[in-house]
Amino acid sequence: MANAIGFTRGQQRDRVHGKGHRFTAGATLSNHRPIVAGRRDAQQQGWGLVEYDLRQAMVRDVPQMQKLVNWWAKQGAMLPRSLHSLYEHIRDYTVAVENGRVIGCVSLHVSWEDLAEIRTLAVAADYHEKGIGRALVQEALQDAKRLGLTHIFVLTYVPGFFGTMGFQTVNKGDLPQKIWQDCVHCPHFPDCDETAMTLDLD
Questions:
Q1: What is the 3-state secondary structure (H, E, C) of the chain?
Q2: Which domains, and CATH codes, for the chain?
Q3: Which of 2, 95, 177, 190 is the most exposed place for a label (fewest CB within 10 A)?
Q4: What does the pLDDT average to over 69-97?
């Protein structure tokens, strides 16, 4: 599943399991401390700070999540998601929210006893290059560790982004569960040009 973090073809405050963080978007994510990112102010030619919450998705977020994901799907960055699919898999999702607006989302989908996929990474176009995509992926990786998973994979059109987070490029044939469970149902199969990448959490 492709991810749309910039240029591609994809609490509560207390979460039920204890997750929910307030961020000021832009520096580095460390021990869930607030981080700072800038949003360009065209009039002032300066950088404004963006505060957002990173938390477990809730059912009330689904309409906004679908709007965000399907906007990127129209750009060819990822597959569209139906409301039914998002509601059905809501527990897989983490969202970034600013003032009630969903500005980013990511899904961690468990595929096997030691394997999970990072899916549907999307950040609103006006919030790119502020570290939000990286924060979402790092949160998904923390969830994977909490679940006891040891291997993470992603199919992406932005291998450079995931490479900076330690992912390594592999052959799609090394991911048989993904190919036969999901890829065979994709309209781009078998001509997918996404890059398969993996990360070991051991």
A1: CCCECCCCCCCCCCCCCCCCEEEECCCCCCCCCCCCCEEEECCCCEEEECEEEEEECCHHHHHHHHHHHHHHHHCCCCCCCCHHHHHHCHHHEEEEEECCEEEEEEEEEEEECCEEEEEEEEECHHHCCCCHHHHHHHHHHHHHHHCCCCEEEEEECCHHHHHCCCCEEECHHHCHHHHHHCHHHCCCCCCCCCEEEEEECC
A2: 60-200 (3.40.630.30)
A3: 190
A4: 93
